[in-house]
Write a structure and sequence with these properties.
Elements (H helix, E strand, L loop, with lengths): L1 E6 L3 H17 L5 E6 L2 H6 L6 E5 L7 H10 L5 E6 L15 E4 L4 H18 L3 E6 L2 E6 L3 E7 L2 E6 L4 E5 L2 H7 L4 E5 L2 E4 L5 E3 L2 E3 L5 E3 L5 H16 L1
Parallel strand pairs: 1-2, 1-3, 3-4, 4-5
Antiparallel strand pairs: 6-7, 8-9, 8-12, 9-10, 11-12, 13-14, 14-15
């Protein structure tokens, strides 16, 4: 569950941010998230933390957005901060509180989406060894090292694990590809394979442990071999 907070004393802007968040998350098939809105910095501080990403207006009643950010950092809050303001001159002050973004009002759609791309990558890096998937009304943490390969069928992604079990969830392979690390290679439009488990490549098939195999596109066979050699070299250094 990704927890967002919006702190802005303009109800219209808070509503616009919430709508843009919903559009972005839905467009990336991410449903395990929540959005909480606060009209001032004191209300946000009193909420007690626990947010992954906070969008902060700067020009508010005291404590303003910048001071709210300082207070958050002083008490050890490591949320990803993004300032949303009409004030261009405060952009350098945002470095002092380790902000991850600075969006100018009125909001620019492509810039907002690029900022969200960076934020999600940062969140993934915090849990780089695990993949969090939503299953039903709950979620499950799957260690990347346990995944042999990933397969997409229809609207579902299937994670085939090294113990023979399979975990499935609704999603897109291209979104999953952005969430995993360099050990995974897209050998086919419907498959990602963990290079740790690749035993070879022959006749259009990726060879896996226990005699299992998955297809590799003809145009990707050479790339798979090169990727595997690079990966093995990196692991040996």
């Amino acid at each position: 569950m990704i927890k967002f907070a919006i702190c802005d004393d303009e109800p219209g802007m808070a509503q616009e941010l919430s709508g843009r968040l919903a559009n972005y998350m839905n467009g990336h098939s991410i449903t395990a998230y929540s959005v909480s809105s606060f009209s001032n910095g004191r209300a946000l501080l009193d909420a007690g933390g626990g947010f992954d990403v906070i969008f902060l207006d700067i020009r508010m009643e005291q404590p303003d957005g910048m001071e709210t950010a300082r207070l958050l950092r002083r008490r050890g809050d490591h949320a990803l901060l993004v300032f949303v303001s009409a004030l261009k001159e405060c952009v350098f002050d945002s470095f002092d509180v380790e902000a991850r973004g600075y969006l100018l009002k009125p909001l620019d759609g492509p810039r907002f989406n690029r900022t969200m791309d960076r934020l999600l990558r940062s969140l993934e890096q915090r849990t780089a060894e695990n993949l969090v998937i939503q299953r039903g009304t709950g979620c499950e943490v799957v260690p990347l090292c346990d995944i042999v390969y990933c397969e997409v069928l229809g609207r579902k992604v299937y994670l085939h694990k090294n113990d023979g079990s399979v975990r499935d969830y609704y999603g897109k392979l291209e979104d999953l590809e952005r969430r995993v690390d360099g050990r995974f290679f897209k050998c086919h439009r419907s498959y990602l394979v963990n290079l740790d488990y690749v035993r070879g490549c022959r006749a259009g098939q990726v060879l896996l442990p226990q005699g299992a195999c998955i297809p590799v596109s003809r145009l990707r066979e050479r790339e798979l071999t090169q990727a595997l050699l690079r990966y093995m070299k990196e692991r040996s250094t």
